[in-house]
Amino acid sequence: HPPFDVHAVRKDFPILAERVNGYPLAWLDNAATTQKPQCVIDRISEFYRHENSNIHRAAHELAARATDAYEGARDTVARFINASSADDIVFVRGSTEAINLVAQSWGRQFIGQGDEIVISWLEHHANIVPWQQLCQETGAVLRVIPVDDDGQVILAEYQKLLNAKTKLVSFTQVSNALGTVTPAAEMIELAHRAGAKVLLDGAQSVSHLRVDVQSLDCDWFVFSGHKIFGPTGIGVLYGKPELLAATQPWQGGGNMIEDVTFEKTVYQPAPAKFEAGTGNIADAVGLGAALDYLSRIGIENVARYEHELLEYGMHALRMIPGLRLIGTAPDKTSVLSFVLAGHSTQDVGKALNEAGIAVRSGHHCAQPILRRFGLEATVRPSLAFYNTYEEIDRLAAVVKRLQCSKTHFSG
Ligand code: PMP
C-alpha cells in the first residue's frame, strides 16, 4: 500500500469541509457514526439514476442491474470479513437488528429453561437487551463477565462462568464506550471448548482492525454500515453456513420463500430465508462501495495511523489536570472517554461544540460499563482515519482552557 496521507483522504469526505461556529468541523464522533466519502454518495446516486428496481422478481433489464449490484455488494462484504461464501452474509438494518435476529430465531429455537447466556460488562445496550428479552421468554439466565479497572475483560472470571449450561457467549470485539479491544480469538476458543456458540459484535471493530471471521471462528459476526463509512439503515449478519441452515427464519414474507400454499411454506436457503420483504437495496450497494474504498486505503494503514493518533490523544489528555481517562487497557482503539473534575460532561461537550469539535457526551448506550466506573456519563471523542493531530490539539486546548478557567474562578 502507498504511505497513508491523511490530507489526501480528507478530500474524499465532502462534509469535512464544513464549518461549525466559525471553525473547521472536527468530527470526533466516529463511534456514533462515520462520515461518507464522495464515492459512496455517488454510488447511491448512480443506483437511483441507472439501476433502481426491486430485485430478483422481475425479468427486465433494471431488475437484473439492481440484483447484480445488490449481490455484488454481498460478495464484497464476504471478502471484506473473509466469510467462506456470500451465502453467509445476511443484509439487515444494522448491528441491533442482527443481534435481535439471532436472539429471536436461533435463540428461541435452541435456548431453553436454565440455559446460560454469557455477555461482558462492556456491552452496548444492543447486546444486552435482546438477550434479557430472550431470557424472560425462555427462562434462561444471563451471566456477565466482569472487567478490570483498565476496562478489559477478566479472562479468569470468564472461564469460571463457562460450564455445560452455557449455550451462547455474545460480546463485543471493541467497546464503544472505552475502546477496549477484547481478546476475541481466545474468548471464542474458550466458549467453543465449553460447547457454546459465539456472537461477536463488530460494530466498533470492523472499521479499525482487520477482521477475519474464519480465523476468529466466531459463529456470528455483526456490524453496521454507517459506522464503516457506509449509509445508515444497512448492516450485516454473518453466520456460519451450518448455523444459518439450521435456524428457522425470523420474519416471513416475500423474497424468503420457495413456495407458498395455505397449508405450508417452503423457505429459500440462507441468506434469502432471513431477508423477508424488500430490503435496503441502494444502501447495501452503498455499503459495498464503502468497503471497496476502505480496502483501497488498506485497513492495516488505517490501524497503524489510528493507533499513533490514539496514543497522541491519550498523552495529550493525560497532561490535563483534573481529567480522568476511562478505559486504559493496553489493547484499545479509537475511543478517548474521559470526565473532567468540576465540569459536567454536557458542559464539556458544549464548549467543544462551540469550537467546532463534535464529540458525544452521555452514556453511549452502555450504562452498565460506565456505572462500573462510578459514572453516568463521559465525554467521548472517537477517531477515524481522517482525523488529524491538529484536531487532537484543538480538543486538548479547549478542555485545558475549560479546566484552567474553573481552577482560576474557584481558586
Ligand atoms: N454494538 C456496539 C458495540 C455499538 O457501538 C453499536 C452502536 N453504537 C451497536 C452495537 C448498535 O449499532 P446500530 O445502532 O447501528 O444498530
UniProtKB/TrEMBL annotation:
Q: What is its EC number?
A: 2.8.1.7
UniProt domain Aminotransferase class V: residue ranges: 27-395
State the similarity comment: Belongs to the class-V pyridoxal-phosphate-dependent aminotransferase family. Csd subfamily.
What is the covered span of the full protein?
A: 191 to 601 of 601
Top-level taxon of the source organism: Bacteria
Cofactors = pyridoxal 5'-phosphate
Question: Which reaction(s) does the protein catalyse, per the Swiss-Prot or TrEMBL entry?
Answer: (sulfur carrier)-H + L-cysteine = (sulfur carrier)-SH + L-alanine
Write the protein's name.
Answer: cysteine desulfurase
The scientific name of the source species is Methylomonas aurea
